[in-house]
Design a protein that fits this description.
By secondary structure, the protein is α+β, with helices and mostly antiparallel strands. It contains 2 helices and 6 strands, in the order βββαβββα. Strand 2 and strand 3 form a beta hairpin.
Length: 108
C-alpha cells in the first residue's frame, strides 16, 4: 500500500494505491473532481463508487461537515474468530470511559 498526498492552495488530496486499486479522497468535492479528471485523462480508470470497505475496515459513517469518519472492524473480527474456531464464545464488555478522546500523539 502506498499513500500519496497532494496539497495546493489550502486543499489536500489523498491517493491510496493498493495492488491494482485506488482510493481517492480530498478536502472538497470540487478539488477531488478536478484531480480525478486529470487522472482519467492520463490513465484508464473506472469509478466503482464510494468505498464501503477500506483495508478490511467498514466505513460506517462519513460526516463531511464534522470532518469525521467512523470505521468498524466487526466483519474482520468475525473472520478471525471463525478462523480460530471461536465464533460460539460468549462476548464480554471492555470497560472504557464514555466520550474518551483518542489521539495519535502521546499525552494529548
Amino acid at each position: 500500500m502506498c499513500l500519496y498526498i497532494f496539497r495546493k492552495d489550502g486543499q489536500v488530496f489523498f491517493l491510496v494505491v493498493y495492488v491494482d486499486d485506488l482510493l481517492l479522497t480530498a478536502s472538497s468535492s470540487q478539488f477531488m473532481n478536478s484531480i480525478k479528471a486529470k487522472l482519467s485523462a492520463a490513465f484508464k480508470m473506472c469509478n466503482l463508487r464510494e468505498a464501503k470497505y477500506i483495508l478490511r475496515l467498514l466505513k460506517t459513517n462519513w460526516d463531511h461537515k464534522l470532518r469525521t469518519i467512523s470505521l468498524s472492524q466487526c466483519q474482520y473480527s468475525w473472520t478471525i474468530l471463525d478462523h480460530v474456531g471461536m465464533t460460539t464464545c460468549k462476548p464480554v464488555w471492555t470497560l472504557m470511559a464514555h466520550n474518551s478522546q483518542l489521539s495519535a500523539r502521546p499525552g494529548e
